[in-house]
Structure formats: structure tokens, C-alpha cells
Design brief:
This protein is of the alpha/beta class. Helices cover 23% and strands 26% of the residues. Helix 3 packs across helix 8. The longest helix is centred in the middle third of the chain and has 13 residues. One zinc ion binds next to loops.
């Protein structure tokens, strides 16, 4: 099979991914073999390729937003999946099920979790292995390319929205709550659609790139401004998808008392010193790490109900390095995906 591998992390301008021919993998117990149709491009792939995340395995195949079909079932339990079934393969490859996090509904924090495209081979390839119990059957309404970005950008946005605690003080109602979104790429353009469907007012702060600001306005943002511009009203919560620690002070200062700032990325540049006055008033900063399968299932159901539309730019399989470069340059409106060869 054709696959992209990362041998030595390097800036994407140096094209660190290499296209190679590899044997098609064989599913083991509890695994399925999935033929990739489309694989979403995530900022995490960029962090892996450039070495901002430590290498977990040599010659890793990146990619963890795979839409494909089950073409082979391994022995033992394969969670009722059928041959030919269309499924999604996401970032959480597996969790051990036995640690104190798994036992308390927090498998996203599992101490022995494996991750697609980081610690096990991912979706920048014609085929990949997945744990059947961690695969998402996909609703028919969603096209392959539209569905792929939901599998990480969408689910992480969903979990970030949950961790905002919005609605907790309003009996679960989101109507009229004020949410800020910092960074408006794949995750931001999906999270805004869920938040708007719930009734929130959304304030989008993003680097002054015409296409991001235009897409935010089109998707119903109440206000769109530059990354460090203060929104016109104090925010009840904010989510930062931009991996830019230097924006944390601005986001914190935009929060109303009691508000939460949720950091949605897996990596972030250094956060400058914070003035305690910005945090005082029971403001909160927290990160989001991975997601549980329950997050994934709930999000896919809500996305279908809310008729979430993914803005997608497709890249041919041969252009994996170029796709990562485009992501790095903020040159993709919405989400980028790689099409199978
Ligand atoms: Zn665990
Ligand atoms: Zn991702």
C-alpha cells in the first residue's frame, strides 16, 4: 500500500513526510482493517511532523481523522462491525480500560492510551488498522470529505464546548450566553455551528486573514475581530484553538467574572506571565486532552441534528506535505482533507 511516513521531524517547508510502499497490515484480535477514503489534516499532524510533539514511534504514519470502509475483520470481538461498513477512525486508538481514569469515565486521560497517527500508524495511507471498539459507524447523510474533519476537529470542539461550563449557571440553557472562539480553523468553524445551534452568541477572534473572518461571519458570529482585539462585551467563556500562548492574556482579559478559558490544542507556544487580576473573579483556565468515545458519539449525533456543514479543501494523496504547509500558513478555510490515491 502507499503510505506517508515521518522518519525525522522537520519544518514542513523541508517536506518531512516521505511517500513509501508498505505491506498491507493484517488485523489482529479485536482489530479491523480500514481502507482509507479520506483523511482529515489536523494541526496535531503538523505538531508531529515538525517535532513539537515527541516522536512516539519511528517511521510513523500520521493522520487520525479517517473515513473509510471496513475491508477485513480480525479474529475475536470486532464490536459488530460488518465488512463494507463505512466508519470513522479517530485520535484515540485505544485505552486500557483498567486504569483509574478509564474506570471513572475518563478514558481520554488513560495512562496507557494509544493514539492514531502518533503512537500507532494512522490514516495518511491506503489502509490502517483500528480497534473495532474505538471505531465510529458514520451516518449516511454525511459525505466522506465532510465527515472526516468531524473526527478530531469536531469532537475536540465539542469537548471544549462542554468544558466551558456554559449553561451550568443557566439551568443548561445556552440561549444568549457569550462564547469567544480564538483561532478559526477546522475546529473553530465546527464549534461555532454547534454553539449557534444551542443559542449562544459567538465572538470570533482570529488573525487577520480575510478567509477566516469571512467564514466566521458567514457562520453567524455576532462579532469578528483580530486575535488580540477585545470583544465588545465580556465573555461567559472562551475556547482557544490557536496554538498561540501569547493570546492567553488577551483571552483571559476578555472573560467576565466566573468565566472559563478552555485551551483546545495539544501543543501551545509559551504562555506569558499572567497578572492575577485577570484571573481573579473565579475565572478559570483549563486544557482539553483527547476525547472519550462518548464525546465522539454524542458529537456525531448532535452534529447531524444541527446539520453541521464542514467547509472542506481537498488535497490529492500526493500532496500531504503541501497540505500541512497550507495548514501552517493559515491558508485553508475550514478543514483540509487528503483524498485516497
Ligand atoms: Zn486507562
Ligand atoms: Zn487532531
Amino acid at each position: 500500500m502507499q503510505a506517508w511516513i515521518l522518519t525525522h521531524p522537520a519544518p514542513v517547508s523541508q517536506q518531512p513526510l516521505r511517500r513509501v510502499e508498505l505491506p498491507r497490515p493484517q488485523p489482529g484480535p479485536g482489530q479491523v482493517l480500514v481502507r482509507m477514503r479520506v483523511c482529515g489534516i489536523c494541526r496535531t499532524d503538523l505538531h508531529v511532523a515538525e517535532g513539537e510533539l515527541p516522536q512516539r514511534r519511528p517511521d510513523i504514519i500520521p493522520g487520525h481523522q479517517v473515513v473509510g470502509e471496513v475491508v477485513e475483520l480480525g479474529p475475536e470481538d470486532t464490536a459488530g462491525l460488518r465488512l463494507g461498513q463505512r466508519v470513522g477512525v479517530a485520535w484515540l486508538h485505544s485505552a486500557d480500560g483498567g486504569c483509574r481514569f478509564c474506570r471513572t469515565g475518563r478514558e481520554n486521560l488513560c495512562e496507557r492510551a494509544e493514539f492514531t497517527g502518533w503512537s500507532v500508524p494512522g490514516g495518511y495511507a491506503e489502509f490502517l488498522l483500528a480497534r473495532a471498539a474505538f471505531v465510529y459507524p458514520l451516518p449516511d447523510e454525511l459525505g466522506d470529505a465532510q465527515a472526516a474533519p468531524l473526527l478530531c476537529a469536531g469532537i475536540i470542539g465539542y469537548r471544549s464546548l462542554r468544558l466551558c461550563g456554559l449553561g451550568d449557571a443557566q439551568g443548561g440553557r445556552w440561549a444568549g450566553v457569550r462564547l469567544g472562539i480564538y483561532g478559526f480553523g477546522a475546529a473553530g468553524h465546527l464549534a461555532i455551528q454547534i454553539a449557534r445551534a444551542r443559542g449562544a452568541e459567538v465572538y470570533v477572534c482570529t488573525r487577520d486573514h480575510v478567509r477566516h473572518q469571512a467564514l466566521a461571519a458567514e457562520l453567524g458570529a455576532a462579532w469578528v475581530g483580530n486575535a488580540t482585539a477585545p470583544p465588545p462585551v465580556p465573555l461567559d467563556a472562551a475556547i482557544m484553538f490557536a496554538p498561540a500562548g501569547e493570546l492567553v492574556p488577551a483571552a483571559l482579559r476578555a472573560l467576565d467574572r466566573g468565566g472559563a478559558l478552555v485551551l483546545g490544542g495539544i501543543h501551545m507556544s509559551l504562555i506569558p506571565p499572567l497578572n492575577y487580576d485577570w484571573l481573579y473573579g473565579e475565572r478559570l483556565i483549563r486544557s482539553v486532552a483527547n476525547n472519550t468515545r462518548a464525546d465522539g458519539r454524542e458529537f456525531l449525533a448532535e452534529a447531524a441534528r444541527a446539520r453541521v456543514r464542514t467547509r472542506v479543501r481537498e488535497f490529492p494523496f500526493t500532496e500531504a506535505n503541501q497540505a500541512l504547509q497550507a495548514l501552517k500558513d493559515d491558508a485553508i478555510a475550514g478543514a483540509g482533507v487528503l483524498r485516497a490515491p
